[in-house]
Amino acid sequence: MVETGLVDIAHSVIETEATNSGYERGLIELAERGDDIIVMDADLAGSSGTAEFRKRFPDRFMDIGLCEQDMIGTAAGLALAGKCVFVTTHGMLAAGKAWDIIRSTICYGSLNVNICGADAGLSAGAAGGSRQSLEDVAVMRTLPGMTVVVPADSVQAARATVAAARIPGPVYMRMAATRVPVVTTDLTPFIVGQGSVYRQGQDVTVIACGVMVYEAMKAARTLEDTGISVRVINCHTIKPLDRAIVGRAAAETSAIVTVEEGSIIGGLGGAVAEALTHTERPTPIRIIGVGDRFGVSGEHEQLLAHFGLKARDIAQAVRDVLKKRTESGDTDGGV
Predict the structure, then answer these.
(1) Measured between alpha carbons, how far is 117 from 137 in angstroms, rounded to an integer?
(2) What is the rounded distance in angstroms from the CA atom of residue 153 to the CA atom of residue 302?
(3) pTM over 0.85
């Protein structure tokens, strides 16, 4: 483990676990602490990470079935009655099928309902493009008052779930069904709304979220061997975005690459680009993610490679953005 509380990916055997599992640990921790929570599911407890919670706390669990709109409406009612509610469904169904009800009930009333978008991003894998939620972050980010969190791994997913219970308004958390590298520990700094610098660097900054944090760290190690110093930021909270950390990255490295496991339209990259409009210095930026298209069937690792989301792709984007900065005549590499 390194000083920042991170797993040393250069010298450790990296464990893997689904962030869905971290979500369930967070729910169980809340219940054991005595928090007055209600967990709702849409007939997918076996994969979403709520089966153990259902077994241990049956009086706090409700399976609504394949009725996401009804589940959201019921959750709103429970929240109005003073309950802290967690609702769980596929990310695509939460962001798509139930979006209108989330907007008109939960967000309009600023209710304490926490929505878990399970099996999100490309983690739905073989289920294909119809089930892979690539637009969920962008769609949820537009809702007034909605906090949007994309944990880097299962440890952070558990901490995000516990933290969500303390946030008075609605929260959307994006979880993955597939096993992903565990890079953080309980000692890693984590505060909703604040990004974290996982690696210092002077030449360029890579801002990542979700499983892409691991790939960004790998890319930074590779680039260091070629003389390129890369700052890596885990921006787990897409909304509210930590504009201060983005502004410092722009001022101190003068080039930014964002990387996310979702659509390049309206997600992390879009949020960072919006934040850069508030800075005084023009900053070249590259946004890595899935283009304007649907997903395809395949194993998670295959899909990351297919859509250009591996460390080698991030490294190439870093070289490209540095080349653009040089061509623009800004060669001082920041302050």
Answers:
(1) 10
(2) 19
(3) yes
At 116, list the tokens.
């878990």
* Residues belonging to the chain: 335
Helix intervals (H) in 57-111: 68-80, 91-92, 99-101
Q: What three-state secondary structure class fits 86?
A: strand
329 CB-near residues (< 8 Å, 6+ apart): none
Nearby residues of 246 by Cβ (< 8 Å), 6 or more positions away: 195, 207, 235, 256, 272, 275, 276, 279
What is the Rg, in whole angstroms, of the alpha carbon atoms belonging to the chain?
A: 19
Residue 26 makes CB contacts below 8 A (sequence gap 6+) with 157, 158, 159, 160, 161, 162
Q: What residues are annotated to the active site?
A: 68
Cα dihedral sign, 294-292-67-46: positive
pLDDT digits (tens, 9 = 90+) for 160-194: 999 999 999 999 999 998 999 999 999 999 999 99
Please write the tens of the pLDDT for every residue from 246-256. Answer: 999 999 998 99
DSSP state at residue 283? -
Distance of CA 215 to the CA centre of its chain: 14
Neighbours of 244 (CB within 10 A): 11
What is d(CA 216, CA 85) in angstroms, rounded to the nearest whole number?
34
CB contact at 8 A, 112 and 169: yes
Helix axes 243-253, 268-276, angle to 10 degrees: 70
Spatial CB neighbours of 73, under 8 Å, sequence gap ≥ 6: 101, 105
